[in-house]
Amino acid sequence: MTHDAIAVVDFGGQYAHLIATKIRRLRVLAEIRQPEDATELFTRYKGIILSGSPSLSAFGQDSAYNTALYDLDVPILGFCFGHQEIAKHYGGTVVHGGREWGPADLQLIGDSPLFAGLAPVERVFMSHFDSVTSVGPGFEEIGYTTLGASGQSHRFAAIASPALRRYGFQFHPEVDDTVHGDEMIANFVRGICGCAPSWTMERYVEERVEQVRQQVGDQSVFLLASGGVDSTVAARLLGMAIGADRLHLLHVDNGLMRKDESRAVLEAFRAFGLDRNLHFVDASDTFLAALAGAVEPEQKRTIIGNTFIEVFEREARQRGIAHHLLGQGTIYPDTIETGGTKRADTIKTHHNRVPVIEQMIAQGRVVEPLADLYKVEVRELGEKIGIPHDLIWRHPFPGPGLGVRLLCSTGIERRDGFDVMQPAVAAVAARYGLTAMALPIKSVGVKADLRSYEHPVLLSGDAAWDTLLEVAGQMFKDVSGINRCIWNLGLVAPTTARPLPATVTRARLELLREADHLVMEGLRRHGIYADIWQCPTVLVPMEVDGRGQEFVIVRPIHSERAMTATPAPLPAALCDELRAQILALPGVSGLALDVTTKPPGTIEWE
Ligand code: XMP
Fold first, then answer.
1. What separation in angstroms does the CA of 236 have from each of 276, 305, 325, 386?
2. Which phi and psi (to 5°) does residue 47 adopt?
3. Residue 338 clears pLDDT 70, i.e. is over it
């Protein structure tokens, strides 16, 4: 069956995914489309949403897109940048200026169906540089905002042309700070576009099972099963579709797993009855040999992705599994982020989308039953098809495993601009009674949707959790070139830091595995594992003691779909225990907690 669906045009990754997730919660299928996609790709939708973008200005170079969309006879709603584009396209004016940021009160005018059921004044969230100052023929203002005590008002915060069925919101209804944003989105999707709520998980299972049967025919499927949520749910769904006999699971120990992970994964598969054709290979030598000497994160990811396929093909041959398709637990963001868009250079390569896999996909040799789902939906589906609760709610673990948490370095120091940066970071920290040092390494972050490589700052001293977050926020605002703040858990405040040359080695992986194990055990011991969305432990080749020993960073976060994140506090007792345990590991002399939100930092360090 085909479902009523909405296209979300992706002008800014995080926002587009958030909008799509919210629409799907209404049981209406939402799919991400790229601004340059051909018009034919939009004809199946009952409505289109143009997302906002933190980086695009209506006056920018990158803002080109397929404006033939406006010729389609379906309702179109734009948010922020999308709102300004709609206004402009239909003869309105947009000016550079009129910046608003943060909460504002939206005063509604008239009785637009977009605001059905809402109060005359609604709290909304603003984040824009450009503003609409007039609308073209047929358009009307259906809301303006007033800001705080000043009562200053911004016109054209919501516009509509009921005849053309074109609408725009200057604010972001998809973020939680817009209190009734979900209702506004529902009014558009269900009311104005008339989408029926048919996209349920039950239907998804039925449809996917049928599709897999058709795609696989009488062949078998050989699934790379890491033991994570996605591949386990994929295994179960494939089993439902083609039966256990034709489903082979291959668990590869790539040397980048957590401590005792492979043993635990194999036990869980057995306990869960997924062991009819369960295969295991310890391929850590192959992976480590392939990674020898690699330093750059993207290079490491590509090597890991390619080596998975090499090992997979070799194992299939050796185990006599002929006429098989490759199964993967790929989920929706992975497929979108590798869509070959104009902005693809800004997003990391996923190990399950390296070129050799893209070729296999083109030949119809890959089966990915979860490729349309977000993580939260995979979990919902997993619960529905009987995957044990603990397995479903394990923290997400990146496909390349500890490979993205074991930082490597040529040892070259990055101190450009430090003469200005060091006094600036110290001054911000001093206002809160802390000391601070910009570190001579670069770490990955996101800025206005682009991946950025900037310096982390190490904060030392005693402070309450909220103060730490405030210092970090202030640091990002006041000092350019900074994308992370970490808080020293060591006993002394380091005064020097130097990167060390380092690559992927078994010894370094063992060290990271131990540190990660201590952190995971600690979270469980203190009963907070389930409250925390994910908690990477990172080994950074940086010495702070002049003795050539490395630095460990722990990054507990709260998140919903990994597009944004806030640092999660750890109990003081756990910090004490980790200090004692991790600093006692041979080869480690520094420990810090990452107190950075995403953005500007990413969740992982690579
Ligand atoms: P970032 O670091 O981009 O992470 O904020 C967002 C989510 O994606 C996971 N992640 C990865 N997953 N291959 C993966 O399969 C990768 O290279 C990779 N890098 C990040 C990360 O763990 C988080 O859940």
1. 12, 23, 16, 9
2. -170, 160
3. no
* Average confidence score pLDDT of the chain: 91
Q: How confident is the model at residue 345 (pLDDT cuts 50, 70, 90)?
A: very low
Torsion, CA 125, CA 131, CA 137, CA 140, rounded to 10: 30
Residue 418: how many CB atoms within 10 A of its CB?
Answer: 17
Angle between helical axes of 229-242 and 261-271 (0-180°, round to 10): 30
Q: Which residues contact 22 (CB under 8 A, 6 or more apart)?
A: 174, 181, 182, 185
pTM: 0.83
Distance of CA 506 to the CA centre of its chain: 29
Between 229 and 345, the more confident residue is: 229
Considering only CA atoms, which of 271, 274, 225 is closest in space to residue 245?
A: 274
In the reported structure, the alpha carbon of residue 604 is separated from the centroid of ligand 1 by a whole-number distance in angstroms of: 6
Q: Is 526 a catalytic residue?
A: no
CA end-to-end distance (rounded Å), the chain? 41
Q: In terms of Cα–Cα distance, which of 89, 10, 21, 20 is closest to 50?
A: 10
* Whole-angstrom distance, CA of residue 324 vs CA of residue 495: 57
Atom 10 of ligand 1, nearest CA residue? 398
Respond yes or no: is residue 80 known to be catalytic: yes
The Cα 27–Cα 36 span in angstroms is 27
**Burial per residue of 561-590, b for 16 or more beta-carbon CB atoms within 10 angstroms, e otherwise:** bbbbbebbbbeeebbebbeebbbebeebbb
Domains of the chain in start order, with CATH, are 5-192 (3.40.50.880), 201-400 (3.40.50.620), 418-594 (3.30.300.10)
In this structure, the residue with its CA closest to atom 15 of ligand 1 is 399
pLDDT digits (tens, 9 = 90+) for 482-507: 999 999 999 899 999 999 999 999 99
pLDDT digits (tens, 9 = 90+) for 541-582: 999 988 999 999 999 999 877 777 899 999 999 999 999 999
Phi, psi of 477 (to 5 degrees): -75, -45
DSSP-derived 3-state class of residue 83: helix
Question: Are 410 and 295 spatial neighbours (Cβ–Cβ below 8 Å)?
Answer: yes
Which ligand 1 atom is the nearest neighbour of the CA of 333?
A: 8
To 10 degrees, what angle do helices 297-318 and 284-291 make? Answer: 150
Interatomic CA distance for residues 457 and 482, integer angstroms: 7
Give residues (CB < 6 A) around ligand 1: 301, 348, 350-351, 396, 398-400, 404, 534, 562, 598, 602-604
Q: How far is CA 469 from CA 310, 474, 476, in A?
A: 44, 9, 11
For residue 273, which of 385, 105, 112, 184 has the smallest C-alpha distance?
385
Tokens coding 471: 């210092």
The rounded Å distance from CA 194 to ligand 1 centre is 36
What is the per-residue DSSP string for 121-165? EEEEEEEEEEEEEE--TT-EEEEEEEETTTTEEEEEEEEEETTTT
CA angle 68, 73, 77 (to 5 degrees): 80
Helix, strand, coil % over all residues of the chain, rounded to 5:
35, 25, 40
Q: Exposed (0-12), middle (13-18) or buried (19+): which is 339, by Cβ within 10 Å?
A: middle
**Which of 404, 451, 558, 566 maximizes ligand 1 atoms within 8 Å of its Cβ, making it the mutation to test the pocket?**
404
User: Does residue 110 have a pLDDT over 60?
Assistant: yes
